[in-house]
Amino acid sequence: MNTKTAIVTGGNSGLGFATAKKLCENGIKTYIIGRSKEKTEEACAEIGANAVPVIFDLNNLDGIPAMIAELAKETPIDILVNNAGINLKKEFTDVTDEDFLSVIHTNLLSVFTVSREVVKNMKENKNGSIVNISSMASQYGIPKVIAYSASKGAIESMTRAMAVELASFGIRVNCIAPGFIKTKMSAKALDTDPERKNKVLGRTPMGFLGEPNDIADAAYFYATSESKYVTGTVLPVDGGNSIGF
């Protein structure tokens, strides 16, 4: 049996780590791309033999083609999970052009560039699955995250455009929109703001926060043949938050 090969960007913590772990546990060799050498190597050591650290800053768009080509040299890339991203919480009028561009650069431009280079490899093999990670911020208006919301809305539009254009090459492209998931990042945001936490839980019909594994399970479904007739979709994994009243 041919072992599949995956790339997970930002796979050294949070949702990316859970996703990389899920893929590795199911026998998929997974390149974990992270900026921090120490953090990325530690994550791979914790996951085990199928996890391979790749130390790279995705803001370096010019370096992405060579980096992807190097990874694809050994084995074809079957799965790409575009998970890396940054957030910025600021009043709308306080967001500078540089702030906005920085979020768009990391959350959108790097996703585009990585995807473009991986698709070149996938087209040769007439097979592949790309999973983009969006956010509830693209589903409805959340104050103080204008750049993040813009980047995630663009990711969902890009998912649909990619899915249609790449379908004839055997490449599927889907997107997960996580709701409020228990991670260090969300805990920091919610635990310091009880009002926001109550609002989040109050409009989540299931009444509790998700776990990183909930996102990993959805990503695994999209990444494998279990979803072979699914492309261009956006799946909210949010306990009903996006339709909550």
TrEMBL record:
Its EC number is 1.-.-.-. GO terms for molecular function: oxidoreductase activity. The keyword Oxidoreductase applies. Transmembrane segments: none annotated. CDD domains: SDR_c. It comes from the Bacteria. SUPFAM superfamilies: NAD(P)-binding Rossmann-fold domains. Keywords: Oxidoreductase. Belongs to the short-chain dehydrogenases/reductases (SDR) family. This is SDR family oxidoreductase. The lineage of its organism: Bacteria, Pseudomonadati, Bacteroidota, Flavobacteriia, Flavobacteriales.
